[in-house]
Design brief:
Elements: H1 6-15, E1 31-32, E2 37-41, E3 54-62, E4 69-73, H2 74-79
Antiparallel strand pairs: 1-3, 2-3, 3-4
Length: about 80
């Protein structure tokens, strides 16, 4: 996964608000992953097919207490 630039990280930190962790209740700052990623969707049958593959570019925040991961659409969050 490509590393986010400093400008992207700064913009993400301004635009992403994560409240209380839904898993453990931690209410402090979440860790913003310095890597971006993609969620892949496979065909209904569950096999990998390049023609049927769809992706969503994402950024992640991670709860430092329990490791719960939140996903945000990179394109939407960086557009703000």
């Amino acid at each position: 996964m490509p590393k986010l630039t400093d400008a992207e990280l700064q913009k993400l930190q301004q635009n992403i608000r994560v409240g209380k962790c839904p898993n453990c209740g931690f209410d402090g700052d979440k860790t913003l992953s310095p890597m971006d990623g993609a969620i892949l969707s496979l065909k209904e049958q569950g096999y990998f097919d390049m023609e049927g593959m769809h992706t969503v570019n994402i950024v992640m925040t991670i709860c430092p207490n329990c490791g719960f991961v939140s996903f945000f659409s990179k394109g939407v969050v960086l557009k703000k």
